Amino acid sequence: MKKQVLAMGGGGFTMKPENLKLDHYLLSMTNKNNPKVCFIPTASGDDESYTRRFYSVYKKLECEASHLSLFSPPEGDLRDFVMEKDIFYVGGGNTRNLLVLWKEWGLDQHLYEAWCNGAIMAGLSAGSICWFKQGLTDSKTGKLLPLECLGFVEGSNCPHFDTEKGRRSSYHDAILDGSMIDGIACDDGVAAHFIDGKLERCVASIASAKAYSIKNINGKINESIIEPKYLED
Closest Cα partner for 88 from 61, 52, 48, 115? Predict the structure, then answer.
């Protein structure tokens, strides 16, 4: 089974509902007709308007849409609910709270099992960095700081690289001082597609958007562009 992650810097239905190129790409990753897509809005405190936006878009796509709330959990066994899904789309918000709740419920373990069995893990912002070993987030103190995450993918991750003030400099500084390991950053509108822990490709819904490999080489930051494939209509 392929173990796949689609880490979005930003975009998709939550940020640009008029531009669903990344969402269509995500569905295509399953190679299935009518895949089962589950939205997990934990990081937003299970914001109901966020979930409604998901359904308003995904019910029009060729998939079977559902969502998972830990504040109003599904009836029956949580593991059974997770294991029947093809895609998990994790929304943005507070990554630290997401990780705490997932671990309390054992959801991180269920998702890992599903991932090892072929389910695709995806998301943007908090829903992007959670899959990596480390992520740059403001969910700890309001400042942009490193956070230890799930480690499905080695390396670190930084979303919103082109749109949020201080992202680039904070990510550079953390990698330089050793508090974060080397990683990948994505502009809004770019997604990094990992298969079995390795970067397969980057794709973009915005022609000008880019991804970046960020490394500490001999005490200096090396930032190199990863040119994404622009997704045509």
Answer: 115
Is 190:203 a contact under the CB 8 Å cutoff?
yes
Decide: 85 and 114 in contact? Cβ < 8 Å.
Answer: yes
Q: Specify the pLDDT at position 45.
A: 96
Please say if 67 is a catalytic residue. Answer: no
Query: Catalytic site residue 160?
Result: yes
Sorted by where each begins, the domain ranges of the chain are 4-230
- The active-site residue, picked from 160, 170, 193, 205, is 160
**pTM of the predicted protein model:** 0.96
Q: How far from 68 is each of 78, 111, 136, 225, CA to CA, in Å?
A: 9, 12, 25, 35
Q: DSSP assignment of 13-41, as one string?
A: HHH-TT--HHHHHHHHTT--SS-EEEEE-
User: Token digits for 122?
Assistant: 């995806």
| pLDDT tens, residue by residue, 71-111 | 999 999 999 999 999 999 999 999 999 999 999 999 999 99
Let me know: does 184 contact 197? Beta carbons within 8 Å: no
Residue 141: pLDDT band (50, 70, 90) is confident
Top CATH class of 4-230 equals: alpha beta
Q: What is the mean pLDDT of residues 189-202?
A: 97
Q: Which of 125, 128, 156, 170 does the annotation list as catalytic?
A: 125
Three-class SS state of 44:
helix
CA atoms of 207 and 188, how far apart (whole Å): 11
pLDDT at 232: 85
